[in-house]
């Protein structure tokens, strides 16, 4: 089964399922930070899903209009808006999947870690509410720095006594989406067929595309590997610079996050063939959190696909060794942030 092109399958399924508007199942999805640059187009894409019966939009401002606007689309899900901390608990009641893109994005010259001080608090507060109101939900963390915000979420859930590592995900789908796009362009491949696993984390050199594991099988020169790897690692910065102060990736991010939500809903719905890359608690390496390909099931992470870490090229092995100290430091920073709080 491992020879199949997992994510491509997910992509085809997602593209196809958006064409149907008949409800097939009824899952409840909440977006926290729904009024923002990612939140709005993500809400639109999730509104198109036939698997969703309720779409709850939460933000500290500007979410009423977004919900009113979206609610006029004649797709099955009911849209509801929730503004401010006093409405957060209601937003989360009985929710199956919570997506968190709340927080500030990068401006030119900033690293994702520069966002830590603001976003760490936002993620902590929101995940506390998730723990209190829908502890069984799948939690998708988009807010950066993902390398630290996922460990923060894990610590908060542990403190609340409801941590299920199989249900906490750092969303790295955009790295896969970018890798697939850039490789297809470079090699003149049909986009829908291309699938590149991306492992490690979600910042700079911690983003490691395993080009040698690209499907369909394709060969790269050393120069191509270097150029593609660096472009995939810096793709977020490409967008930040092009937007020149107006933020970071929002539309491609919404597309990627919607794909991860759709995959999660299919897994919840009993589909037994759902694979994505995600940053999760992991035993694949000596680091406690690590992104890799996973199999999704009704209870979250069903399996970690370890085979893709075998037979790495020398370039990939060196890059893997090089990313570990940075990723380790980001994980420890996140854990310390929660543990040092009174
Ligand atoms: P944005 O500033 O356009 O939107 C953020 C939204 O969060 C705003 O509507 C704001 O009101 C809301 N917000 C702020 N504090 C909140 C709180 N306490 N509770 C609820 N909502 C709150 O930012 P954008 O572009 O949507 O980015 C959001 C986050 O996603 C950033 O941290 C960014 O770095 C991250 N990101 C992650 C990517 C990934 O691949 N994982 C890719 C691109 C961005």
UniProtKB/TrEMBL annotation:
Residues in Lactate/malate dehydrogenase N-terminal domain copies: 28-170
Entry annotated with the keyword Glycosyltransferase: no
All copies of domain Lactate/malate dehydrogenase C-terminal, residue ranges: 172-338
GO molecular function list: L-malate dehydrogenase (NAD+) activity
Signal peptide: none
Top EC class for this record: oxidoreductase
Coiled-coil ranges per UniProt: none
One GO term (biological process): tricarboxylic acid cycle
Keyword NAD found: yes
Catalytic activity from the UniProt record: (S)-malate + NAD(+) = oxaloacetate + NADH + H(+)
One cellular component term from this protein's GO annotations in UniProt: mitochondrion
The entry's keywords: NAD, Oxidoreductase, Tricarboxylic acid cycle
Family from the record: Belongs to the LDH/MDH superfamily. MDH type 1 family.
Subunit structure: Homodimer.
Name this polypeptide is given: malate dehydrogenase
Source organism of this protein record: Sesamum indicum
Part of the full-length chain shown: 68 to 409 of 412
């Amino acid at each position: 089964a491992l020879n199949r092109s997992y994510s491509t399958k997910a992509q085809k399924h997602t593209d196809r399922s958006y064409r149907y508007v008949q409800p097939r199942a009824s899952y409840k999805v909440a977006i926290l930070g729904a009024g923002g640059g990612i939140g709005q187009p993500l809400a639109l894409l999730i509104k198109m899903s036939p698997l969703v019966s309720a779409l709850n939009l939460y933000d500290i401002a500007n979410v009423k209009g977004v919900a009113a606007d979206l609610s006029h689309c004649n797709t099955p899900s009911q849209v509801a808006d929730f503004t401010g901390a006093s409405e957060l608990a209601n937003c989360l009641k009985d929710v199956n999947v919570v997506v968190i893109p709340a927080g500030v994005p990068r401006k030119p010259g900033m690293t994702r870690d520069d966002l830590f001080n603001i976003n760490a608090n936002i993620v902590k507060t929101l995940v506390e509410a998730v723990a209190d109101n829908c502890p069984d939900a799948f939690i998708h963390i988009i807010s950066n720095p993902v390398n630290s915000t996922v460990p923060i979420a894990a610590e908060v859930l542990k403190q609340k006594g409801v941590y299920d590592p199989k249900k906490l995900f750092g969303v790295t789908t955009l790295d896969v989406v970018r890798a697939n796009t850039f490789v297809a362009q470079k090699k003149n491949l049909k986009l829908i067929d291309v699938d590149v696993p991306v492992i490690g984390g979600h910042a700079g050199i911690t983003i490691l595309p395993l080009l040698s594991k690209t499907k369909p099988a394709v060969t790269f020169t050393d120069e191509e590997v270097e150029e593609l790897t660096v472009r995939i690692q810096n793709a977020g910065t490409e967008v930040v610079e092009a937007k020149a102060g107006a933020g970071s990736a929002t539309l491609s991010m919404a597309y990627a996050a919607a794909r991860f939500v759709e995959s999660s809903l299919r897994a919840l719905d009993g589909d037994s063939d759902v694979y994505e890359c995600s940053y999760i608690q992991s035993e694949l390496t000596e680091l406690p959190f690590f992104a890799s390909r996973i199999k999704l099931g009704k209870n979250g992470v069903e399996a970690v696909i370890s085979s893709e870490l075998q037979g790495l090229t020398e370039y990939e092995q060196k890059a893997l060794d090089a990313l570990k100290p940075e990723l380790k430091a980001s994980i420890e920073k996140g854990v310390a942030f929660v543990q040092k709080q009174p």
